[in-house]
Amino acid sequence: MSVPKLTYFAIRGRGELARLVMAAARKQLDEVTVDFACWEEMQPGTTFGVLPTLEVNGKEYFQGNAIATYLARENGLYGSNNLDCLMIDQIVQLKEDILTVEINTVVGSDQDKMSALKKLVSDVYPRTMKIFNRFIHENPANSGFVVGDKMTLGDLAIFEGTQSCFNSDSVFLSGFPNIMALREKVAAQDGLKEYLARRKTLVPIHSFLYTDI
Amino acid sequence: MSVPKLTYFAIRGRGELARLVMAAARKQLDEVTVDFACWEEMQPGTTFGVLPTLEVNGKEYFQGNAIATYLARENGLYGSNNLDCLMIDQIVQLKEDILTVEINTVVGSDQDKMSALKKLVSDVYPRTMKIFNRFIHENPANSGFVVGDKMTLGDLAIFEGTQSCFNSDSVFLSGFPNIMALREKVAAQDGLKEYLARRKTLVPIHSFLYTDI
């Protein structure tokens, strides 16, 4: 495989899971950063009309989670049997469910934003963090990771899916000790440690939500 | 594997892709149908707080697309190499993007519904149908299917992802001949032919959208 090229905005959003996979694999990822201000003009000329895209061997692919899963399979970070892969896939999709509501807290009318924020705090965060925490607890390997005894895409998806919650309300998240322990284990891995040290700027994107870009 | 048990509402929604996979594989799928009227009361007592769920060997899993992908892998309906799997995954996620907007046309305030409908007709359908059509056209195997020379989860996801559009405006969809030909090929497969003959009731869920349940 040639060095894959990720094209996305300078935010975590739907590109971050792919970046985390490549950092964890200590593999090179070329990145093209698109300026939000230019996107509207660029969009009609793009292949899919949405970002991120990944170019592999001259061909373009899209859908952030499909891209991250491809890169995870390519680098030995997926499950080793079908049920483990199902567990990882459901975690990746739960991360997406969280992100969708988080995005809704910062776009649209003020009323839409408030409604999304209420849903995030009263429903999505409590429900999904409980599921993540339980999944880690119920891993038969009892490794602190969510599937088997080594780090996989599932752990990276929990790390990324809990990141905005952690930035915004770490006291709330500390009520889920398995998540907090997993976050520490993931952040200490070679490759990720160096990547996360570079990704350090906290930017408020809402009165409640903070992001690191 | 014991017979898997799918729990969901009596709609296509996020359960249908799993049903199509099992019909195509001619495998038994136990189904538990939840009444919408009972859901609010049931919800707090459920494992994940959302449907569908799949029970396999006594353990519950969730997320419709993760479930369908697991069943596809179990039954030889996934890709045969990593890039084919990426192609299939991005199609499954594109189907989800369409469904999300379709759902928004039937829930929320009248203003929200109208806004989603406008987005569906002016952006989502034209853009996504063009992508599906092109993917089928560009399959090097030139099989009429979207990946390789036999039917996979990718074809089932295109079939399902274009179903509401087909029900509602088949004239518009006929502008995408590769999709129409794929829909015919898929619908003619053993197992699916019989399943689709049973799934015949067209129900209007909106002035524009029709569903078969």
Automatic annotation (TrEMBL), chains A, B:
Q: What is this protein called?
A: Glutathione transferase
Q: Using the record's annotation, list all stretches that form the GST N-terminal domain.
A: 2-79
GO molecular function (one) = glutathione transferase activity
Question: Domain GST C-terminal, which positions?
Answer: 81-213
Q: Which domain of life is it from?
A: Eukaryota
Query: Which SUPFAM superfamilies does its entry note?
Result: GST C-terminal domain-like (SSF47616), Thioredoxin-like (SSF52833)
Example GO BP: glutathione metabolic process
